[in-house]
Amino acid sequence: MVDPGRAFGTGAHPTTRLSLELLQELEPAGLVDVGCGSGVLAIAAAKLGFGPVVGLDDDPVAVEVTLANAAANGVEVEARLADALADPIPAAAVAVANVTLAVVERLAPRLESGLFVASGYLDRDEPRLDGWLRRDRRSSDGWAADIFERR
Predict the structure, then answer these.
(1) Domain-located, residue 7
(2) Each residue of 104-144: pLDDT tens digit?
(3) Which of 38, 46, 126, 143 is the most exposed place for a label (fewest CB within 10 A)?
(4) What are the CA-CA distances from residue 54 to residues 24, 77, 123 (Å)?
């Protein structure tokens, strides 16, 4: 159960569902959710056994809502205020970001992760991520999500 409050994300959008499908294919490990919004992906990852889980967002309301939603769901998620395109990003085995294509492409070189679940863009979009190899792609209703592995 997630209450988006004034933050972004109810979990109903195809990109969120696709990201969740891809996370289920991965071995649980440490995870960073970049642009965590209401915390949907971070909370789901924690419920899937990922940990530690850190959510980052540049909106203080999103950080507050993520923490509240994690507590309501009985999972441990750390949420921090950060601009992922400027501030340090915590190292984690897996990064997930359900953001725009432009942000995905700018974010990828900054990640200290071996795997990157990316979404927030259309099925016709092809993220160009130097140093990353696409491992899997899912699409639904014209939207896409990918798992990238660091080369």
Answers:
(1) no
(2) 999 999 999 999 999 999 999 999 999 999 999 999 999 99
(3) 126
(4) 18, 6, 28
